[in-house]
Amino acid sequence: MRLKTRYTLLLSLLYFFFCGVLWFYVSKISSDINQQWAERFTQKQVMFDKYRTLLPILHEVNIAKKMANEPAILKMARDDENPSVRKEGLAVLEKYRLTFHDRSYFAAFTKSGHYYFNDANNQYDKDQLRYTLSKSNKDDEWFYKAITLDNDYQINVNKDTELGTVKVWINFLLKEGDEVLGIIGTGLSLEEFLKESVDIDQTGIRNIFVNKDLAVQLDRNSANIDYSSLTKSNDEYKTLSVLLENSQNTALVQAEIETILQDPDKELSTVWLELGGEEKLVGVAYLPEIEWFSLTLIDIQSLNLLNNYEFVLFISLFFLLALFALQQMNNSLFFRPLEQFEKIISDLQRGDYAVTFKPFGVGIIKKLSIQLLEMIQIISRSQQELEQRISERTASLHENEKKLELALEDAKEQRQIAEKANQTKSEF
User: Fold this and answer.
1) 91-104: b (≥16 Cβ within 10 Å) or e
2) CA-CA distance, 296 to 198, in Å (whole number)?
3) Which helix (H) or strand (E) holds 76?
4) pTM: predicted TM-score of the whole model, two decimal places
5) Which of 7, 118, 166, 400 has the most Cβ atoms closer than 10 angstroms to its Cβ?
């Protein structure tokens, strides 16, 4: 195999090796960069989703807290059968109604069981007493469960069958000392709240809110929401397992929730899941103010910072052009001069010392070509001198040969004369 062919093969192998290493390295680096970027983005997105949902609720909670400290309402909770007390209490409730985002309020009292409500349209003006709660009514379980809880307020997504409304209810306990006099609060329209919290159109991103038992509290698909979680047992919850496809994913999210609950300083965590055959990064953040967890599911493909490998093709083409240029340079500097050397030496081997050429190549190649030319010239001169000497020697030999022939002929003639003389003597 010729040297040039072997060198071309070597460059080809080098090119394919370079492309393979480049592709592997870029894939690995881009995967690491994309993963780190996705985790950082997820952490920021989770915190954004957390406060985007939490702040409106806390705003309503603060108003409800002020309302719970109003003397007229506390008085009404103890004696709402008294017309003057009721009138004074309702006036305060109506004043606060206008400060709530939903322009609605409710008040339910432990002693009388009365449930008062008015909405943004003021359609229950002078008729705020909507119904009386009953322990035997399943729809009223939320009230009797809530007044037994230690928390000053709870968030409960519930359907009020009496009022025909579905809201994110903010229940604030009405207390005097340790005695629970009732529950007051407001509600946020579930449809509007979902649009502002979990139904924002972000490609590849889904927001879900669950409680510590993974019961779904908010999701863009309202059919997945576990209404009235406050009054249900664990086996009745509509949990996150419906969305996470398998128990392994559910267990991973549950483990992250347990980790956050055990570490008060840990605000959020991330976990990788496989959903629908695709890798998703799930950010988990705790909302201790309402005891919910914000889950942000992000499609990793939508967050790839480096997902276009065209630059790898450009680098490969650039490297190919560089190798081609190197090949052409080597052809000019080495391989063509070597081929010329080979031809000259082949002519010399055939005995053709009349080879003439101009010095070629650069650097050491040119120096070698000059030395070869000088050597050929020396050999050519030596050959000419040798041929001349041989020619002269041959001519001298021819001359001596003629002299010898003449001497021999002369000797022959002398012998013949002598023989004739001897013969004559014998005759006498």
Assistant:
1) ebbeebbeebbbeb
2) 9
3) helix 71-78
4) 0.62
5) 118
For residue 107, what are the CA distances in angstroms to 183, 290, 343? 6, 20, 109
Separation in Å, CA 125 to CA 71, 91, 96: 22, 11, 14
For residues 271-288, one letter each, b for 16 or more C-beta atoms within 10 angstroms of the residue's C-beta and e for the rest, the string is: bebebeeeebbbbbbbbe
Average pLDDT of the residues of the chain: 82
Reported as a single tens digit per residue, the pLDDT across 254-285 is: 998 888 888 877 778 888 888 877 778 888 88
pLDDT at 348 exceeding the cut of 60: yes
Distance CA 281, CA 274 (A): 9
SS3 148: coil
In the predicted structure, residue 402 carries a pLDDT above the cut 80: yes
For the chain, what is the largest distance between any 2 Cα atoms, rounded to a whole number of angstroms?
208
Q: What torsion, rounded to 10 degrees, do the Cα atoms 33, 35, 37, 40 define?
A: -140
Name which of 99-113, 241-255, 307-321 the model is least confident about: 307-321
Alpha carbon distance 121, 123 (integer Å): 5
| Closest of 115, 247, 138, 258 to residue 185, by C-alpha | 115
pLDDT of residue 307: 54
What backbone phi and psi angles, to 5 degrees, belong to 187?
-135, 150
Antiparallel, parallel or unpaired: β 216-219 and 165-176: unpaired
Evaluate whether 292 touches 155 at the Cβ level (below 8 Å).
Answer: yes
Closest Cα partner for 187 from 65, 96, 64, 104? 104
Nearest partner of 77 among 103, 116, 104, 105, judged by Cα: 116
Q: For residues 161 and 57, what is the distance between their CA atoms, to the nearest angstrom?
A: 23
Running DSSP on this structure, what letter comes out for residue 332?
I
| Angle separating helix axes 310-330 and 3-68, nearest 10 degrees | 160
**pLDDT value of residue 312:** 67
CA distance 182 to 176: 10
d(CA 357, CA 170): 102
2-22 pLDDT tens trace = 777 777 787 788 878 877 777
Instruction: Read off the amino acid at residue 269.
Output: S
Residue 329's alpha-carbon distances to 324, 335, 361, 362, in angstroms, are: 9, 9, 12, 12
- The number of residues making up the chain comes to 428
Query: Is the model's pLDDT at 36 over the cut of 70?
Result: no
